[in-house]
Amino acid sequence: MAEEEFLTDRFLGELTAVGEVDILVGIPTSNNAGTVGQVVTAAQAGLIRYFPRARAVVINADANSRDGTAEAVIGASIESYRALLKAAPLRTMHRLTTSYHPNFGKGGAWHIFAAAADLLRAKACAVFSPDLASFTPEWVDYLVKPVYKEGFDLVAPVYQRPALGGLLIKNIVSPMVQGVYGRSLREPAGTEIGFSGKLASQLLNQQAWQEEAVQLAPELWATTTAVVSNYRIGQSYLGPRVPASKRSLPDVVTSIREVVGALFRFIEMHSSFWTQPKNGEPVPNLGAEYSPAAENVHVQRVQMLQTFRNGVTELASILQSILSPPTLADIRTIASLNDEQFQYPDDLWVKTVYDFEASFHHSVMNRDHLLQALVPLYQGRVGAFVAESQSTEPVSFEQRLEGLSRHYVEALPYLIERWGG
């Protein structure tokens, strides 16, 4: 899609007036008037404090909000941070807002950021969520500095999560990225991310913006694209990620459809990369590591296991078309176990996920229906994972996650075989 087809004339004029910049900060919004002002303020304070000599622009890409979000962005002030700033900015800091159709999802905002970065010749970029109570000026430094001053092309976040928080990321997304792409990233779909202007230009020139997966999970797309393009990647510790509003989190069905579905599609798009032998490079950790956050996650294990058993029974014909016969037989075996005996071993779980990926690729059924069939199996896996991990010490828990990732790595030939079958 040509730039003029999704950038308004007004916005193009504003970008032209800005001229070239060193750093671009993007903030995508959708009815975030109550929270975005604080994020914009903290982002500006971070730019002034840590990059006082840099030419910078903060761009808000808004999905046609009706609550005054754009006005909140333009009206944001750095007065609350003035005492923390040692000096005034040495260059003019620009703040722009533009809109896009919400049908394009977050990918629409990312398309704007990539185009703006390309037009403004930005050296470093970062994208931040508009709904963060934990966002501080330091986050700008943590994600932008490695790109702007140290030559990284993508810096993924590492959040301080409770041990049993982010279970979808820990059981599927992160270890599957390591297994398939060969890179160990804690948060490959994290919504706060830094990246180079070079990567932004590559994303802009790809023909994937109309893909639903890109519209739903542009951060994961940027990360996997950086991996297959052999860009320099790091991950930076940010601290806890605390939402500022009480907006309800997506349910497990939506999360699997949007995040896991996007990952499945990107793996399909990048099959020429991961089906060939490769040596995965370690991903540098940037900043000071920290222990898991205080545990405040409550999991309804009994209900999850019942959902798993019901799913194995009620979706029998569907699972038969998705799973290999040995995998399905093993799942039926564990479904017969009582709650005290129940286990969903790592090797079986990895084969389950890889079977779903292969069947997704072969389009054995409607892809949304296939992803929905994964939900009860995931519930069973989480029920078992929680029971095994509740009393585990932090160091042992990290080893547990590393062990799961190794299973994904070692089972990659299984996926390749199923992929071609």
Question: Please, could you describe this protein's structure?
Answer:
The two termini are 35 Å apart. α6 crosses α17 and α15 packs parallel to α18. The chain is globular. The chain has 421 residues and is of the alpha/beta class. Strands 3-2-1-4-6-5-7-8 form an eight-stranded mixed sheet, sandwiched between helices.
Summarize the structure.
The chain is an alpha/beta fold and 421 residues long.
Topology:
Elements: H1 9-18, E1 23-29, H2 36-50, E2 56-62, H3 69-75, E3 93-99, H4 105-120, E4 124-127, H5 137-148, E5 154-159, H6 167-181, E6 193-196, H7 197-204, H8 212-216, H9 218-228, E7 233-239, H10 252-269, H11 271-274, E8 285-286, H12 301-314, H13 316-322, H14 325-335, H15 346-362, H16 367-389, H17 394-410, H18 412-420
Parallel strand pairs: 1-2, 1-4, 2-3, 5-7, 7-8
Antiparallel strand pairs: 4-6, 5-6
Helix pairs in contact: 2-5, 4-7, 6-10, 6-17, 10-16, 12-16, 14-15, 15-16, 15-17, 15-18
Strand line-up across the major sheet: 3-2-1-4-6-5-7-8
- N-to-C SSE string, H for helix and E for strand: HEHEHEHEHEHEHHHEHHEHHHHHHH
Give the class from helix and strand content and strand pairing: alpha/beta
| Helix proportion range | 40-55%
Q: How much beta, percentage-wise?
A: 5-15%
Specify Rg, calculated over alpha carbons: 22 Å
> How far from one another are the termini?
35 Å
> How many strand units?
8
- Unreliable stretches: none
Largest sheet, strands/sense/barrel = 8 strands, mixed
The number of helical runs is 18
Mean pLDDT: 92
Q: What does the overall shape look like? A: globular
